[in-house]
Amino acid sequence: MTSAVLMLVVLTALAMAYMNGFHDASNAVSTTITTRTLRESTALAMAALLNVLGALLGMALLVVTAEWAVRLLGMAPLIEATAGDPDRLGLALLAIMLTTISWDLLTWWLGMPASTWHAFFGATLGVTLAISATGAWGLLGAVLVVSTMGPLLSAGLAFALMHGLLRLGRHERLQRGHLRFAQTLSAGAVATGHGINDSRLPLAVVVVAATATGSTPTGMLSIMIAVAIAVGAGTLMGGHRIIRTLGRHLTDLTVAQGLAAEISAATTMSLSLFGVSSPISTSHALASSVVGAGAAKGLRNVRWRVALHIALTWLATPLATAIVGAALIGLALEFTAS
User: Fold this and answer.
1) Fewer C-beta within 10 Å: the chain N or C terminus?
2) Beta carbons of 51 and 66 less than 8 angstroms apart
């Protein structure tokens, strides 16, 4: 891979990290902003800082190798298809990341919480099929299973937590001030977990690209710091359209509901650190937790049409990004061949 292509891949990976933070800022702060537990500027600043710290912590605990990166991204078929042609691999990585960034932009514009990870996996499948007619179908299956089971687990846990909080509230054991303080802590846990989870994606892309140059990846510390700062900077800007969807359009959140949703989301996200092969989307975890917490106070408290639109977006993500990714790499290869 030429140095120019490698540099372009690194810059695009940082842009994807920034977009990920911007798109997913709502995961940590939408409930605290909506319930007025924290001011919007304070919530975004806290989430940005904890995203940076979480990203640095998560990447520092990794054993960064080419094998780890390829396995995490499900790129073994793509690596095989581009063996001996590192520039083609660079073009494939660019097509995958540009598709992922575009999908994040589109879903942000629509106010739909969607998974950056699942968009990336879908794009990877489409690009790999376009290049070699083979794809990581096992990874796609894992993504679909996690896309189904993760939200159900999050919703069920939030539902149970909310019932527990309602019982404590009836016995006056839990005051509003206690709930606000606990919600601030749970929002911090979600922000930290997001940094740990999502910083791995751009880092792994850089490792794959650097390895394709024929040498062992070097300068990883500076790349890690750059990724963490990019995620934090995007979070600080905040994806306000998605914040409104989660905090106002999906249900009318109370402080107790926000606390239950955040605890549930943080718990579900932590499963990705303990052997779950496909990362659990923070967007999926929080949105489904909000639904579960709202349903605990009665099914009419959830606006099911909005929930259906979100679920359809989740189902469409791998398919749409696979199609766009395949189209992009086809155009890129045709352009470079002419």
Assistant:
1) C
2) no
Evaluate whether 119 touches 100 at the Cβ level (below 8 Å). Answer: yes
Residues 100 and 106: their CA atoms lie apart, in Å, by 10
What separation, in Å, do the N-terminal and C-terminal C-alpha atoms of the chain show? 19
**Which two three-digit tokens encode residue 133?**
């007619």
pLDDT at position 217: 60
Which of 162, 156, 172 has the alpha carbon at shortest distance from 256?
162
Backbone conformation region of residue 281, classed left if phi is above 0, alpha if psi is from -120 to 50, else beta = beta
Strands (E), 129-172: none
Higher per-residue confidence, 133 vs 180: 180
In DSSP notation, 55-107 reads HHHHHHTS---HHHHHHHHT-HHHHHHTTT-HHHHHHHHHHHHHHHHHHHHHH
Are 194 and 269 in contact by the 8 Å Cβ rule? The answer is yes
- The top-scoring range by mean pLDDT among 94-108, 130-144, 195-209, 323-337 is 94-108
Instruction: Find the helix packing angle between 40-60 and 220-237, rounded to 10°.
Output: 160
Token digits for 325? 């990714």
- Please give the Cα distance from 83 to 310 (Å, whole number): 39
Residue 266 burial (CB count, 10 A) = 26
Work out the number of other CB atoms within 10 angstroms of the CB of residue 163.
14
Q: How far apart are CA 92 and CA 111, in angstroms?
A: 28
